[in-house]
Amino acid sequence: MNLFEIDKEKCNNCYKCLRACPSKAIRMLHERAEVVEDRCIFCGNCQTICPQQAISVKSDLFNIRKAISDGREVVASLAPSFAGIFEEKEPEQISAALRKLGFSSVEETASGAALVTRAYREIIKTRGPGLYISSSCPSAVNMIEKYHPDLAGKLLPVKAPMLAHAELIKFLYGKEAFTVFIGPCVAKKKEAGQDPKSPVDAVLTFKELKEWLEDREISVPGLRPVPCDSRSTAMGAAYPLKGGIASGLEDLVSCRQVDGIDEAEEMLEYLEGAKDEAAFVEISVCRGSCIGGPVLPPSAPNYYGREKCIQNYRQRISAIGEGGEKMFPPAFDISASYLPKPVKKAEPEEKDIKRILQRMWKYTEKDQLNCEACGYKNCREKAVAVFEGMAETSMCLPYMRARAESLKNIIFDNSTNLIFT
Prior knowledge:
The protein is α/β, with parallel strands linked by helices. It contains 15 helices and eleven strands. The relative contact order is 0.15. The model has no long low-confidence stretch (mean pLDDT about 90).
């Protein structure tokens, strides 16, 4: 089942999703959009930006509710960006709210992040100087595997914090525990379902959680705080912040950090040509890192408010003491492999491009306005997309306008008996 679903009745053929898509994974067919997941990096931009709210993401809520009603041990893995999202006075009120919904236990994904940092450190110490790229952001991993496959071997071979933490939950609570990751990321839903043996049973976004709480009429600010079942670490709680992953490695290696799709693309292009680069590069596709995720409730504080809440929470963790050996079982394997998965695209000949351009009344370079109204950077890129079956010639606004004006002139010239007032 595809992650994204588009309501054809709501889609109004505005191309806004295509303009926002960094990988041009939106196919326009019969003047309606559809997501081509083989090309998608699952950043969630299309869903966030759609003015008609025509794009929805597959929900696991039914499965979660069923697991709770069946009496299973349902364990929440709460992403470290949770602090400050739900208008709570104290972060522990989120734990209380989840228990009211029926969760048996509430753990922090930051524990998994701490495991990831430990694994990163061991690899860097063993291998020595070289280029290392973080593998914690699933959208960044997709971007590298699909569009910069030569760099796939530079991704640190460690599972992302969500998967590492779900493995830890299964280790602590038993294989039958039903694990639910809760966070701000669309790509996590795809990451959780890629492997049939995934330790993650369901993924719930912060937006979905907010809607569920409202449906149950649970007011988070009014709840008595209940601590999570194990304390996190300040290191793991830093993961959703810019430079948070790198902060645990700065004593071992030179670190660089980028956040945002355009910045990530520029960095990857640079790394492809920088053969002798020796550094750890932290890449987050969301601007501002995880606290800038695409599926936050509308009522959440702005970016700087969320950042402050997480910084305060980290200070509290340091003050009351961090989690202990429960988070670091011996010989706990969270290794992973990342492979090149280049997107296969058709390569039209020049005559094919020229023919398609002429169908859009673009006979000379001067006719190619490159206005980007269709969602593509220039007319030639749009022509290639038409050749691939990803776009339609009717998406060209200047072309359709010229056609309309031509038709008007034909009607005018052949309507001699009409009187215009």
